[in-house]
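Figure 3 (text version): structure tokens given as input.
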């Protein structure tokens, strides 16, 4: 009988190219869409210089956490994210990046990356919210 994963471990966190146990406990390899999405999350969550032997890896969106939520900062975020994805994730073709402020909370920025998988042309979307300083 296969063990079920605890809810707090689902989905498991791991390197995007490695297999991970599925809900039935069997070893499952991620598909292309999941692997690219995990790779993009790694790029966005890593600061340049944080990964040993790869000083240029990462977008460094955390560097903006104490910045004001204004047009200049959102433009810099847009540029940083687009450049990092283009440079570090060749399996994704970025179509559009939206960096918009939240109408209900002026500190929150909503980031949406619209991209296509280069191999299949399938459209994908990744979104995250970032709370800035003011």
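Below: residues designed for each position.
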């Amino acid at each position: 009988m296969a063990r079920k994963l605890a809810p707090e471990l689902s989905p498991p966190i791991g390197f995007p190219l490695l297999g991970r146990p599925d809900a039935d406990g069997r070893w499952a390899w991620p598909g292309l869409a999941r692997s690219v999405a995990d790779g993009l999350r790694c790029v966005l969550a890593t600061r340049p210089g944080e990964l040993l032997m790869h000083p240029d890896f990462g977008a460094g969106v955390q560097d903006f956490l104490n910045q004001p939520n204004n047009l200049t900062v959102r433009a810099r975020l847009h540029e940083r994210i687009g450049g990092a994805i283009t440079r570090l994730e060749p399996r994704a073709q970025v179509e559009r990046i939206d960096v918009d402020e939240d109408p209900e909370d002026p500190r929150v920025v909503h980031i949406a990356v619209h991209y296509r998988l280069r191999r299949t042309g399938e459209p994908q979307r990744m979104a995250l919210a970032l709370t800035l300083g003011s």
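The longest strand covers residues 92-101.
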